[in-house]
Amino acid sequence: MLKGLHPSRRAFLGSMLGAGGLAGLAGSAQGQIATKPGPVEPTWNSLVANYRYPDWFRDAKFGIWSHWGPQSVPEQGDWYGRFMYMQGHPMYEHHLRTYGHPADTGMMEVQKRWTADKWDPEGLMDRFVKAGAKYFVSLACHHDNLDCYDSAHHGWNSLRVGPGRDVVGTWEKAARRAGLKFGVSNHTSHAWHWYQPAYAYDPEGPRAGERYDAYHLTKEDGAGTWWEGLDPQDLYTGRHMVAPDGIDSVAAMNAWHDAHDGEWIETVPPGDTAFARQWLLRQMDLVAKYRPDFCYTDNYELPFGPYGLAAAADYYNRSLEWHGKIDVVLTAKQLTPRARFGLVQDVERGFTDHLWDEPWQTDTCLGDWFYNRARFTDKSYVPAAAVVQRLADVISKNGNLLLSVPQRGDGTIDAEEEKILDDLARWFAVNGEAVYGSRPWHVYGEGPTQLQVGMQNEGGFEGFVPGDVRFTTREDALYLFVLATGDAPLQVRALGRRALAQAGKGRIARITQVGGGPVPFRQDAGVLHLDLAPGDIFVPVLKIEGPGLV
Q: Minimal CA–CA distance to 114: which of 414, 296, 371, 297?
């Protein structure tokens, strides 16, 4: 079982097996839920022993994500379904002006307004492929707890509410027709605490103390309405952390939420194992229906203890049935050394300061995760050049980049996003050979820009400066990404004769610009000097060839 593993993985797994074998970590809390049988058991030991990082994921390098759902409708950005219930927040004020008071018009009514009436999945997929994507990810369910697919275990889904369509299933067909690997993202394990402001009230003003819609709506109230037969408590998740009566200021209410439902919680809701059980059923249903190659979980490791372990084992065993091997990717965040060998590390809007032995991913966005009209009007999207800089940095350190392109509630993207995708398409058409199928060199690169230490969350697209370069290799070639160009000749210390000799590398025979011609160079003991011709493409890439370089 241990043969062929990375030495650190082998040593770690050996210590785990010696400390108790494959038994005992998961228990039986998932009850009688029937997961897919197979060799992978719902324990960390078994996940580590069986998992291998798929070659397709290591080769793909770049994916595009449709982080799209009903929270795109107000065009206000992220977490609308939470902040619309927090008096004083700009989204609360927008909701009050646009839809009415949240005691009368709650998030369920916003979900009804998600029409997707101008959505062109085939046209968008064609754009995404031209823009360089090799895998595509569809949001399956966010914290607002609406399943964007044909859900067997949750009535609040996109066939019953909003578009009246199987959003995930439609994306899946479009992605596979385009030749892309297909993925899904599941964020709903946090709905039970994230949604608790919907049970609160205005602490100030003319309607102070009047509870919002989640607090009082029941299934019976739906008789004769558009949501007849649905239970709002199934959507809003029930009263887990309800703000007490008597809070009389916005500041005090915000402080209460921050200290209670605002915490990022991975445990089973107190006294409500039914929520965790339903999460597992919905996750298994999602995987069984759409056979995703990739599954993103918005969690620190896996949620709900044994339920999360059961979901992972179920997914891996299904992959064995589909492919004859575990050929899928399951991501999570802030993984311990144990978990990094059984899952793939994801870093939200992040980066790392070193080259990793294990493949990993960062996910980031052109703007806000959910569509924010202000990004368009003030032209504050991340430009294509910055996307490619981040891509080069990530893949040089053994990572992948998953990029979200926000869509409006009607399914369209705006003109600024179209321009960014077109710019990416032009870059990839020339330089894709340095990205796809590449692997890191013995060093990731060099340059004056100092990144924060360690694997970071919520990092921005910080500016790179002349002298910042990154490396990849493919076949017998070494590729050099020039993250920022300047007036002076480029100097690369890692390619000086002394550095190459110390690393046991060979010599440089020729250098050409990808998509261009030869690049003059001069190499001395300490530095490689390069004279780059001015060009009209951002992040130029040089192909360096010579015996023994790779």
A: 371
